[in-house]
Amino acid sequence: MLPTHKALLILACVVETAVSPQVLADYAYGEPSAYEQFLLEKINFTRTYPQKIAEQLQVKLLDNSRNGVQPLSFNAQLLADAESHSEEMLKQNYLSYINLRGENFTDRLKRIGYPYADATEAISKADSTLSLDKVQTIQNFNNDLFSSVETRENALLNPRFREVGLGLAFGNSEQQGNRFASALFCADFGVRSKNNPIILGVVYADNNHNQLYDIDEGRTDININVGFETSTRTAKAGGYGVEVEANKQYTLTFSHPDYGSVVKSVQVGDANVKIDVLMSEFSKATPQHCANFADGTLYLPCVEFNRQKLKAKLNIINVNPLQLQLQYLSQEGINPLAQCENFDTNSQSLDLNCVAIGTQNYSGKILLNTSHPGIPVFDVQSIRVKQ
Fold first, then answer.
1. 68 neighbors 50 (Cβ within 8 angstroms)
2. Residue 232 clears pLDDT 80, i.e. is over it
3. What confidence score (pLDDT) does residue 2 get?
4. Count of beta carbons in the 10 Å neighbourhood of residue 127
5. Is residue 84 within 8 Å of 68, Cβ to Cβ?
6. 211 CB-near residues (< 8 Å, 6+ apart)
7. What is the CB neighbour count within 10 angstroms for residue 233?
8. CA angle (360, 324, 205) in 5-degree steps
9. pTM over 0.85, yes/no
10. In this predicted model, what pLDDT tens digit does every residue of 303-336 receive, in sequence order?
11. What angle do CA 260, 73, 36 make, to 5 degrees?
12. Are strands 116-128 and 5-15 parallel, antiparallel or unpaired?
């Protein structure tokens, strides 16, 4: 359900004179939650493809906002401030960029020691008399930022910003004796006086094969080496950031003892660069032609039916006997490297040559239940460990 009340505020930009570039040090990315990382992915998609989002929301962009701008990286200081402010606003039931200490946004930045050259803050609240869907609420927050000319131009699509802190707090609040499910959102956008580009991204398992990061798909503790000089690890939600010098070529090696490694090369100019890595790219990863079973859902990357290549999603609807019901079928986004399973129209069956369940691969067979009316249902005929 959409929230019954929303408010959006933004603090005017604050600017200070930049100082000379400093020597690069270890970059502090922070530990965003999976929901905060998910929101950052939404924001960076919007910053990369503003015209596409404008068409979806039927928003007319200013001429200088039509082109994409550099992606944002989490910054640990901004993240901690945004999270703290969101939590306080939720617990104390208020909406303001001035906290209960009387500190405004710039006061808070100075207290935490963030050396900003330019910064701004946006806050928002969503209330509902029913429960709030967290994923939809996050999407609504991103849409709110985009729909407001002030927040879109000064914050969301501001090309100057390199870093962000996103605070999301979910809980309950009371207004005039009525109880609401509430969500508080705080976004701190900034660029430091030490204005170096950042290589950033997320390492994730695309479990639902939508080619986008979703909640709980991120992979933590992936080692990242940048040349021979810098190393870091992915945060608990799968994100990472590495500050580098401008106008250089870099080689990134992503590695983990259980997954193997992936090597990426990138030319960095003056702007941030986003490099995402799928778990299927790792040298020890599950072969790309394998289907994937997770959380009661079977994802089929490619099924050939009547000479058409389709991807499909089936959910368990019965355990004894084991039955799967078709939930999704599409011709879009077929992986060109995927090995398609063939649906036999004569036997009304589908042989599954490879299904990844956790770290183990299986094979099996499902048969269309022709006696089941409505949406197609398949009976699982066999499943066995793949040798």
1. yes
2. yes
3. 38
4. 20
5. no
6. 333
7. 14
8. 40
9. no
10. 888 878 888 899 999 999 999 999 988 887 666 5
11. 85
12. antiparallel
